[in-house]
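Hi everyone,

Forwarding the result from last night's run.
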Amino acid sequence: MQEIPGSNPQTHTAGEHRTTSERIPEQISGISEHIADMYNQFRESGYYSSIQDSKHQLREYIKNNPLQSVLYSAGAGLLLGLLFHRKR
């Protein structure tokens, strides 16, 4: 069984620094920054505002038609259940 680096619980006192192997590697930090930049670009795009508009329209539809919304959801759940049902 392999151990994951940094998974052993260690008590660190105040002022004691962790070793380099316990820090987040620079590659992962770079990837995280890249993903954050991509997310921010997406939020500034027209697609994000389009999705937000659709979300608000859907909420209004559900508020105005609660019974139909529940029936649509139940029908979709039943259909997906039948599609993914495995016989044992």
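The chain has one domain: 23-84.

Cheers,
N.
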